[in-house]
Amino acid sequence: RRSSDLVTPRALRFYEECGLIDADRDRRNRRLYDRKAVDRLQLIVELRKAGVGLNDIREVLSAEGDAQEALEIALGKLEARRSELHTALSAVDVVADRLKTTRPAAAAAA
């Protein structure tokens, strides 16, 4: 699978500038990604889709030599993200409930 199938060229450059992936260059200065870089890129893409930030992704990738540790870190980050989303959804529910109860009263007063 080509790396360009995963992300845009701009994103590839960004991840390379951030030090998340490495690329070799061919004679025409085009980037070449080995299997390890493509695997890292796939992990980065999946974690970004899940809402995991770059600093947290960097932490996951730092445990790259130990797949089990990397998985545990990634799962921990995703659980933390789930908790944040749950809290945000609860706050939206509270606001929605308030709007439901105040609108009929405001309409009756008008």
Calculate the terminal CA-CA distance, rounded to whole Å. 63 Å
> Which shape, going by the Cα principal axes?
elongated
Class by SSE composition: mainly alpha
Identify the strand order in the major beta sheet. 1-2
Got a strand count?
2
Please describe the biggest sheet, giving its number of strands, its sense, and whether it closes into a barrel. 2 strands, antiparallel
Residue stretches low in confidence (pLDDT < 50, at least 5 long) are none
Oligomer: single chain
Question: Helix count, per DSSP?
Answer: 4
Radius of gyration: 21 Å
N-to-C SSE string, H for helix and E for strand:
HEEHHH
Q: Mean of residue pLDDT? A: 85
Strand content: under 5%
Helix percent reads 55-70%
Can you put this structure into words, describing what you see?
There is one protein chain. With about 110 residues, the protein is mainly α. It is built from four helices and two strands. A two-stranded antiparallel ribbon has the order 1-2. The longest helix is centred in the last third of the chain and has 43 residues, at about 65-110.
Could you name the key traits of this structure?
single chain, mainly alpha, two-stranded antiparallel ribbon, elongated
Q: What's the SSE blueprint?
A:
Blueprint: H1 9-17, E1 24-25, E2 31-32, H2 35-49, H3 54-62, H4 67-109
Antiparallel strand pairs: 1-2
Helix pairs in contact: 3-4
Structure summary:
With 110 residues, the chain is mostly helical.
